[in-house]
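Run log, item B.
One chain of 283 residues. Sequence copied directly from the ordering sheet:
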Amino acid sequence: MSVPPPLEGLTREPGRVRSMADFYLTTMKSALITEFQYRMGNYLYMIGMIAEPVIYLVIWTTVARQAGGSVAGLSVGNLAAYYIVWTLVRNMNIVFTPYGWERRIRSGEMSGALLRPIHPIHHDIAYFAGWKFVVILFWIPIALVLSLVFRPTLDPDVAQIVVFVIAIWAAFLIRTLFLWVLGMVSFWTTRVGALYQLYFAVELLLSGRLVPLQIMPGWVRALAHFLPFASTFGFPIQALTGPISTAALWSGLAEQFGWIGIGSLLVAVVWKRAVRRYTAVGN
């Protein structure tokens, strides 16, 4: 009987980590090169995406001016900063949606993904993460133009900047995980668009996307933090634009990590059951 070397497990584990790191770096690089080739398409897409916050920005700054210069303690400049940072957070939050899941199931594309020796979620996370570097690069001139027009009040300290950089990536992960769970409903129903629209409506109201959570009533803020939505929009934006205490910065970050843990667990549990029901349709 052969006895495995005592260090075999230890040497294999670093090998897996290195393989995963190589996979992520290669996929992110591929996404960056691919998406950078379509600069005009990406720019037009981003301009379309900023139409929504610009409308909110115009409405709320008008309300603030008519209310004497501020709304719930947020000045015109604070609101301008909130919605300009919103444009970056929104683009960071674009992930693989349940509509994509419908296509994967109907076209049989999922069959190929299941044959790969790696969980399909890693490709989605890595590809969209690589695309984000293109998004950030293209967002900078848009933010400069918006800043010249709307004159935001933005004076973050070092802790706010550090937490914001971590928070926007954590928000990306949270939204990826929860929309993955929602998308996997396609294994049972094939179409999940209606559920996604319901999710989107609740997210719009409870994430700080439509209205800054600081302006919302206390019970709405409590409900928002009971769900993952505040961690995907409201917290990252407020982390940079304030006002926010140091304790709230770190507790908000801890809340995000908690949602990442819950989302990861849900993905693991639902995936295990969902994939047993998979039947390729194809067209």
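Observations after the first pass:
- The chain has 13 helices and two strands.
- Residues 206 and 222 are 10 Å apart (CA to CA).
Flagged for discussion on Thursday.
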